[in-house]
Each structure stands twice: as C-alpha cells, then as structure tokens.
Design brief:
There is one protein chain. A seven-stranded mixed β-sheet has the order 3-2-1-4-6-5-7, sandwiched between helices. The radius of gyration is 25 Å and the shape is elongated. The protein is α/β, with parallel strands linked by helices and about 350 residues long. Helices cover about 55% and strands about 10% of the residues. The chain has two domains: about 220 residues, Alpha-Beta Complex (Spore Coat Polysaccharide Biosynthesis Protein SpsA, Chain A), CATH 3.90.550.10; about 120 residues, no CATH class. The chain is built from twelve helices and seven strands. The longest helix has about 30 residues.
C-alpha cells in the first residue's frame, strides 16, 4: 500500500519527546495523503531542539505548560476541525516511535472501509513486553468489559482513527491526561457506535522508558468511575451493615427471628439506598436527567436487590446457619457486581 485515499491528519501529542519523533514525522511525509500535526505539550526549553528539527512544512501546536495527553489531543482535534475540514479523518499516534508507518496506514485503510467506527490499532502483546504495560492493559480491558459489556483487546493503544465528523464528540469527552483515551472508547461503546480493531506490531523502545504514564495517578483517573462506585457502595454498605445488626438486635427478641430480620433489612436498605442513589447520581455517573424517573428506576432495582438480599440472608443465616455478620458480607459482595451493572445500564444510562 503506497497511498491512502482520501487524506488523513496524523495527530501526535508530544511531551519531552526523543529523536524518534523526528524519524516518525519524516517517515509520514513520504506519503502525500498523511498530514502530520504535532502538539508540544509544554515540553520546555530542554526539548526545543527536537521540535526545531521537525520539517517546516508540518503543523506544530504548543502548550506553554504541560496539560496532559488528553488536553493535547483535544487541542489537535480542535485545530484540525477548524483548519483542515477537507480531510477525511484523523489518526492519533504516539511520539515515542511505538507506531510504525505501516500500521498507521492500515488503520487509515480500515477507517475508509468503516467510516462510522472508532478504529484501534491493537497491539498483540507478544514477545518482550514490559510488565506494567501488559498488566495495565489486562486490568483496563477487564474493567472496560465489565462496565460496558464491550470487548476490546487493547484499551490503552494510542493508535486510533476517526473521521472528522466525530471530532465534536471527541471534544466533549472528559479527561486531560491518559484517562481521556479510555473515556473515548467507553463513550463509543455506550453510544453503540462500532469499534474496529486492527492488529499492529508491539514495539517498545528501551523497555518503554520514555512513557510518561504515572502508574498510580493516571490509573486512578482511568478507573475513576469504578473507584467512585466502590466508594459509594462502601458508604452505603457501612450504613446498611450497621443498621441491620443494630435493628435486628432489638427486633428479633420482640418480633421473632424471621420477621425481625425482615424488618431490619428493609429499614436499613431504605436508609442506605437513599444515600447510595444520591451519591451515584451526583458523583459517580454525573447524571443530570430527571431525578424522579431515575429515582423510580433505582427504587425498582432496590426492591429487586432487597428481595435478593433477604433471600440470601435467609439461606445463609437461618438455613445453613452462618453467623449474621459473615452472611451479610457474603450477600452484599455477591450483589455488588449485579448492582453496578444494572445502575450503569438501566438506572443512569
């Protein structure tokens, strides 16, 4: 394949890049249908010679200070949409030489065949792959599949392609750093838009030492929604757990084992459910829809989970019997995953 028709912008966010950036840009310029756009994300004076060595014919955008990969991508997307509307699509590529020109061309070709899709250049992760890269991709892939139901083999690839018509959508995604890339895939999955994958070679230079990915800070941002849901669930669980034990202590002697347990479970779930609904709506899923309709859906789900919760407690605590504190832990753990999936897919869609 010597040419790509029609033309594509190749957007390269660069923070403190090595000389591989120059080699990549020069390789791209061998193809007249690829238009390099580089964003210097506040690399500083020490890296000015690298950017100065880039060919004058390319587009070079700058951030005065480092704002993150997501912010650099948004800057590039906005510029391309405003100044290059004649192009067919835009491909994002990393500045560290991980993406071969041949793979960039293959991603472009796939987008031509599927212009409605988000095309990912998915690494095969064969050979000598750094542990943090392999582990990070496996974890993110699992979280993505669990939270959206979609299947993507490489959620962290920086090689992606979309048509220019998708840029307004991309500019709305949250995130300024690496979490922006996972938010992009999640948005396409939630919107039921197609995601296509093109296998590409896995290339790591010097064990990926040039990566500016912070395993702690950036991972927390990538998994922010799931972590906030865990926090919300923990708060609700703590309230529910304490109230079940407290109320059952007073009600079982007066009302009997079965009725006392049932009343304790209901009252505790009403209190914890109210807290959980408000936290999830305002903080976790940032849902701004009508509260009444969301509350009705949540109430139906809560009633369903309440029945399941009591049923599990009845089996575990009364029939087996397992001590109530242990039975409560087991029941809530089993229902946690069910609750998350239902709230994401049904209550706060």
């Amino acid at each position: 394949m010597s040419q790509v028709q029609p033309r594509f912008a190749v957007l390269i966010p660069a923070y403190k890049p090595s000389l591989e950036l120059i080699q990549l840009v020069k390789a791209l310029l061998q193809y007249p249908d690829l238009v390099p756009v580089v964003v210097d994300d506040g690399s500083g004076e020490d890296f000015a010679p690298v950017f100065a060595a880039l060919p004058d014919c390319i587009t070079l955008l700058r951030h005065e200070v480092n704002r993150g990969k997501g912010a650099a991508l948004k800057t590039g997307f906005a510029y391309i949409a405003a100044h290059m509307p004649h192009l067919f699509g835009v491909v994002t590529a990393d500045a560290d030489g991980q993406h071969r020109t041949e793979d960039i061309l293959r991603v472009c070709e796939c987008l031509q065949q599927h212009p409605e899709a988000l095309v990912l250049g998915s690494r095969l992760f064969t050979g000598n792959v750094p542990f943090r890269s392999r582990f990070g991709n496996v974890l993110t892939r699992w979280v993505f599949r669990w939270s959206t139901g979609g299947r993507v083999s490489d959620t962290q690839t920086g090689l992606r392609a979309v048509t220019l018509t998708q840029i307004p959508r991309l500019l709305e995604h949250r995130g300024e750093r690496y979490e922006y890339e996972i938010n992009m895939i999640i948005d396409f999955a939630r919107a039921k838009l197609p995601i296509r994958e093109v296998p590409i070679e896995t290339v790591y230079i010097n064990n990926n030492e040039s990566s500016h990915f912070n395993p702690i800070v950036d991972s927390l941002k990538i998994y922010a929604c799931l972590l906030k849901f865990c926090l919300s669930s923990f708060i609700a669980f703590a309230v529910d757990y304490a109230l079940v034990l407290l109320l059952s202590f007073f009600m079982k002697p007066a009302w009997g084992e079965e009725l006392g347990l049932a009343v304790a479970v209901v009252l505790a779930r009403v209190a914890s459910g109210t807290i959980n609904f408000l936290f999830n709506k305002l903080v976790v899923f940032r849902d701004h829809g009508h509260t009444a309709s969301k509350a009705l859906r949540y109430l139906i789900l809560a009633v369903l989970i309440l029945g399941l919760n009591y049923g599990l407690l009845y089996v575990l605590n009364i029939l087996l019997p397992i001590p109530l504190p242990v039975a409560k832990l087991l029941a809530d753990l089993l229902l946690f995953f069910f609750s998350y999936a239902m709230q994401k897919k049904v209550v706060f869609r």
